Amino acid sequence: MAGPLSYQQILQSGHVLGRDFRVAFGDSKVERCLLVAPHGGGIEPGTSEIMRTVAELGGWAWYEFAGFLRQGNKEALHVPSTSFDEPTLTGLLAQTAFVVAFHGASDSGDPVVHVGGRWKVGRRKLIDAINGVSKEDGITAEDATLQGLDESNITNRGLLKEGVQLEFSRGARNMLFPPDASREARGRRSTQLRLLASAIHEAIDQLTRIAAEQPR
């Protein structure tokens, strides 16, 4: 069965905010950038926790849509990034310079982060940052130049009209939340997660300075 194509379809299906899913955010520094996990909780496990760890390091603005069904979160609650229209996020996107979106890739092999989005400079900064700590955590980043390019994608809906999309493979998420990125495992912050989050935070900090000099 096809998943929902809009926030309204989730509500029409009978799913209840606060019971079946959560919308949460922090808007400090939202004009600088916004970190987004639109498929958090049980939808793409681990993405909420990675995003929040990075956000806390820099006090960055953040947004999370997280599923808490006992099963079938992805099928019931995964709205595509190109049609994601939950009102709270829409309001935040109108205020921020650029977005860094955190996703879970469907592949289950090597621990890799697929880095996409329309912002070439942003992609390169984050690839270099992640690969700079790869010797410690075993996770590598690769340029996914054909992913996250649609103008309607959450990633590209900030004021600069370009952003960065980070797709963490299942192998990467299992490594960050050993052994299997289960709900229990995601409650613990591994050394690997702290190292990776710190590198991503530092790259985002550099990107905010670059973004501040660009016309809008």
CATH architectural group: 3-Layer(aba) Sandwich
N-to-C SSE string, H for helix and E for strand: HEEHEHHEEHHEEHH
List low-confidence stretches: none
Label the overall shape: globular
| CATH third-level topology | Aminopeptidase
| Termini gap | 41 Å
**In total, how many beta strands?**
7
What's the domain count? Answer: 1
Query: How many whole angstroms does the radius of gyration measure?
Result: 16 Å
Number of helices: 8
Percent range for helical residues? Answer: 25-40%
Give the topology, please.
Blueprint: H1 7-12, E1 21-26, E2 34-41, H2 47-58, E3 61-67, H3 73-77, H4 87-93, E4 99-104, E5 112-116, H5 120-132, H6 134-137, E6 140-143, E7 164-168, H7 170-176, H8 191-212
Parallel strand pairs: 2-3, 2-4, 4-7, 5-6
Antiparallel strand pairs: 1-3, 5-7
